[in-house]
Amino acid sequence: MTAPLATLRDASKSFAGLERPALAAITASIAAGRLTGIVGPDAAGKTTLIRLMTGLVLPDRGDVSVLGADTRHNPGAAQAGIGYMPQRFGLYEDLSVQENLDLYADLQGLSEAERNSAFDRLLDFTDLGPFRERLAGKLSGGMKQKLGLACALLRRPRLLLLDEPSVGVDPASRRELWAMVRALVDPETAVVWSTSYLDEAERCDEVLLLSEGRLLYAGTPQGLTARVEGRVFRVRPEASAKRTLLQRFESDPEIADAVLQGDSIRVMTRRREHAAALGSASPTPPRFEDAFVDLLGGSHLQDSPLAAAMRTIPPSDVPVIEARGLTKTFGAFTAAENITFQVRPGEIFGLLGPNGAGKSTTFKMLCGLLRPSSGEGHVAGIDLRRAAPKARARLGYMAQKFSLYGELSVRQNLEFFAGVYGLAGARRAERVATMIDVFELGPMAGRNAAALPLGFKQRLALACALLHEPDALFLDEPTSGVDPLARREFWSHINALVKKNVAVLVTTHFMEEAEYCDRISLIYRARLAAEGSPDALKDAVRDAELPDPTMEDAFIRLIERSDAERAAT
Amino acid sequence: MTGPRQLGWLGRIAALARKEAKQIRRDPSSAVIVLFLPLFLLFLFGYGISLDAASVRLGLVLEERGPEARGLAEAYLNAPDFDARLYSSRREAERALQANELRGFIVIPPDFSERLNARASWPAQIHVVTDGSQPNTAEIVANYSQGVLSVWSVQLARDRGFAAAPAISIEPRFWFNEDLRTRYNLVPGSIALVMTIIGTLLTALVVAREWERGTLEAVFATPVSAIELLASKLFPYFLLALATMAACVLAAIFLFGVPFRGSFLAILALTAAFLTPALGQGLLISSAAKNQFVASQLALFSGFLPAMLLSGFMFEIDSMPAPIRAITTLIPARYFVTGLQTVFLAGDVWEVLAPAILKMLALGAVLSFLAWRVTPKRIA
Fold first, then answer.
1. How buried is B204 (Cβ within 10 angstroms: 0-12 exposed, 13-18 middle, 19+ buried)?
2. Are residues B41 and B61 in the same domain?
3. Hey, CA dihedral for A524, A528, A529, A532, is it positive or negative?
4. SS3 per-residue string spanning B125-154
5. How many domains in chain B?
6. Among A113, A321, A372, B269, which is least packed by CB within 10 angstroms?
7. Does one domain contain both B130 and B145?
8. At CA A8, angle to CA A5 and CA A12, rounded to 5?
9. Distance CA B142, CA B150 (A)
10. Proportion of chain A in helix, strand, coil states, percent, rounded to 5
11. Residue B146 lies in domain
């Protein structure tokens, strides 16, 4: 076996103003000929780990050696042999595709002959040939990503470092990129790919699993999933009983994990012998996420006390959220076209699509933050064109990055939002106290929101959106990047709300998150491509070739069909 | 196959500078910053702010109506610097002053003619009342009314046939700015301000922008060194600043009619010298500020405000307290203002220009050194 291309020995890194170190005593190595995944939720230390290997960040303690050179003493030697694509690809958006390539070729010191062959090779590899003159800023997400990759590959690096390359791009582009990167791995080179998507982790040769700056596992993904072999099952309850059953599983001490997967519940028992208690459960192969949850100690959730803190909205068939032909154009660009759907009380509806597909535009129109070019939106029966502020008083909104005031304390944030929603006096004091209680924010109440751990920020953001007991709750990418336990906790709260007949609208680009929804709409290139329950959408693409399609398979196939229909008309 | 490019660092700087130039050309805000903003500021300072007394509203109260008193009143009414108006009593003029209708008023007292004609040791007097809440204007009113009075009294003496005019007659003559038009001083001064914006603010912003967009991270992972990156920012913005300077100078001469007694070579030397500290400061800021908001605040406080307040452009350095005066010696704009005013109004006085240029270069060397030291090729 050849020597590893990069090794970290006891490497630690802390940043000023943060309580825990970004990375704590990491010892790991990157082997040649392997695709290594750095896997973990946001703030786990993935980016810091990659930056340590680029030499752009030095460890406080310990050593990092890349391609035989110590990054502390000789970063130049390491940098000469690596290709690095940072999170936002590092492209100059006001330069064309060719100009970006030229620039990086000059910076890497490629000769005339080298560069011409490199350009031909990479433009062919990335299919960007026809777009040489296009400005990088005008490329789609998937194309930007490929150009970023091409710039990192100019010198045929021995170590290719990709920091979250697949964030926000559509599933088809994500698969394509994966295949391209796979093809780059040869016995002499290695690729490092960081991700918070656990399905990507499964496909790596090796993984370094990080959580809160610590290395939880290093090895093959199969080695980790093998630990929970024989403990994972699928239970298919009556549709009406699924959330009640889920809650029972969540609080059962013999069950390590339970999540909704369309109409069924995925269950992982604490021990193999516990399986008998599940009754009519069918065993199912374990996945990386199961093993990760097990490694974190399993999830154990009591019934969310949120139910007790919210009024019960009378059940009804009248939709709470309604979009009718919503269209938004910005000049010649159509951001959303003829978007129509309804969300009834007690229903979770998801808008699933990649970044830039039109999810946020649709969302903003339904919150009354953006005026539709045509069509109409209603929330709780109120027409958003006529009385947007009145409608907004009936909905709770949790923005993507939580939009909390970082310099205000937890309590001050709650009081501020209570004030914004018009709660005053005893009522305000009571609601704030209730929310602190329900979300167990008491010990944190005096701390600034900016200093909270990610999981607490999420709780606080949800608490702020629910102070005024809204009829409808809008969630924008609510759990992308949080760890699986925090995601389960979050959704247990949402389940509690649904029982009280709150209507929930979720946008996400995250396929697993879509499984929590009762119904989803696939949104792609400003239009709705398909609508149905997660299982119905998966069933729609099931065939001999794909006997057990994932949500992502369904998405890709349904988009292809919709594109074909669009082309035909 | 040709050999690998031997250019090394020079090639990398050239590549980055070319990239910068393309970005400047493609960014529509460049034209605004290079042409519109300087002209706008020059107009603002050239026309909007004037420290001249032209058409200052002045009240006149005649408490006697003898021919001498009327003659003096006539002199005030005809003076080009004043927009004078008669009031029937002190009380009325005071009210007008309080109502902000007047900047000051002059009272010719009842015994004016009597004292004047007595030519005794008991000289004639007039009272000048000015609005002290605006000290600049007050001073100008007092000085100008003094001027009108002395011109009139000389005239009076001649009319009366005194062969010998008053023992000493003061005839003020202002050199370099004969008409005492503050615009002539303000326009060169405001050019210094514009150049601070271009040199410091713009440079700070373009580096911060690269941090914000994440492009610097990718560039830093290539063999580029920090100093190469800094150098690549300097050249394009140096040229851009020279273009702005040319626009400013032309506007000063042809739009504002500021006399230009020096040479373009002197202007070029001054500008080049000034840009060293201005660009160095911008780069220094950019290494500390990784987003455009912080960068612009820092540039505003450390560049623009001192250039405005402490460069001698608005307030005379000689009348500042000693500690503040000491601080002004560290403000590059101070030397640039002096230099520009000299070139425009006096000519190529190298005795003044050379020290100014040397001091700016010295400050530039210090700032560039600091920028180079604190810009690490690391991101944390």
1. buried
2. no
3. positive
4. CCEEEECCCCHHHHHHHHHHHHHHHHHHHH
5. 2
6. A113
7. yes
8. 155
9. 12
10. 40, 25, 35
11. 56-159
B206 contact residues in A (CB cutoff 8 A): none
Phi, psi dihedrals of residue A463, rounded to the nearest 5°: -60, -45
Residues contacting residue A461 through CB under 8 Å, at least 6 positions apart:
A398, A399, A402, A403, A404
Question: What is the 8-class DSSP label of residue A267?
Answer: E
Question: Are residues B41 and B70 located together in one domain of the fold?
Answer: no
* Cβ within 8 Å, pair B19-A95: yes
CA distance A513 to A260: 10
For the entire predicted model, the pTM comes to: 0.79
Strands A395-398 and A382-383: unpaired
| In chain B, residues 155-214 whose CB comes closer than 8 Å to chain A | 213-214
Contacts of B15 in chain A (CB under 8 A): 102-103, 106-107
* Residues B46 and B186 sit within 8 Å (Cβ to Cβ): yes
With helix as H, strand as E and coil as C, how does A219-256 read?
ECHHHHHHHHCCCEEEECCCHHHHHHHHHHHHHCCCEE
User: Nearest chain A Cα to B228, which residue?
Assistant: A107
- Per residue in B287-297, pLDDT (tens digit) is 778 888 999 99
Is there a contact between A58 and A50 (Cβ–Cβ < 8 Å)? no
CATH number (domain holding residue B117): 3.40.1710.10
Q: Quick check: is B172 in a domain?
A: no
- ipTM, interface predicted TM-score of the complex: 0.74
Does A151 sit within 8 Å of B223, measured CB to CB? Answer: no
Burial group, residue B320, by CB count within 10 angstroms (0-12, 13-18, 19+): middle
- Residues of chain B with Cβ-Cβ distance to A86 below 8 Å are 214, 217-218, 221
Model confidence pLDDT, tens digit, residues A538-549: 999 998 888 888
Check if the beta carbon of residue A367 is closer than 8 Å to that of residue A474: yes
Q: How many Å apart are CA B223 and CA B8, to the nearest integer? A: 10
Identify the CATH assignment for A306-394+470-568 out of 3.40.50.300, 3.90.470.10, 3.40.640.10, 3.90.1150.10: 3.40.50.300
Q: How far is A47 from chain B (nearest CA, A)?
A: 12
CA–CA dist A26, A16 (Å, integer): 19
Tell me the fold of A6-219.
Answer: Rossmann fold (3.40.50)
Instruction: Please report whether residue B294 resides in a domain.
Output: yes
**Nearest Cα to Cα of residue B297 among B161, B204, B178, B371:** B204
**Look-up: residue for tokens 């016995």?**
A187
- In chain B, what residues touch A76 (CB-CB under 8 Å)? 223
Task: Give the contacts of B155 (CB within 8 A, at least 6 positions apart).
Answer: none
Instruction: Inform me whether the C-beta atom of residue B6 falls under 8 Å from chain A C-beta atoms.
Output: no
Q: Provide the CA A20 distance to its chain's centre, in angstroms.
A: 23
In tens, the pLDDT along A15-29 reads 887 778 899 999 999
- Considering only CB atoms, B224 lies closest to which of A85, A86, A107, namely A107
In sequence order, what are the residues at sequence separation of 6 or more whose Cβ sits closer than 8 angstroms to the Cβ of residue A555? A171, A352, A511, A522, A537
Nearest Cα neighbor of B285 from B192, B195, B375 is B375
Q: Is residue B113 part of a domain?
A: yes
Q: Cα A362 to the chain's mean position, in Å?
A: 19
pLDDT in tens, A245-303: 888 888 888 889 998 888 889 999 988 877 767 777 888 999 999 999 999 888 878 77
Q: Taking the CB of residue B52, how many other CB atoms lie within 10 A of it?
A: 15
Nearest CA to A398 out of A277, A547, A504, A321 is that of A504
A92, B26: Cβ pair inside 8 Å? no
Strands A374-379 and A382-383: antiparallel
Contacts of A65-69 spanning 24+ positions with Cβ under 8 A? A65/A6, A65/A7, A65/A9, A66/A5, A66/A6, A66/A159, A67/A5, A67/A6, A67/A158, A67/A159, A68/A3
| Chain A residues close to B16, C-beta within 8 Å | 103, 107
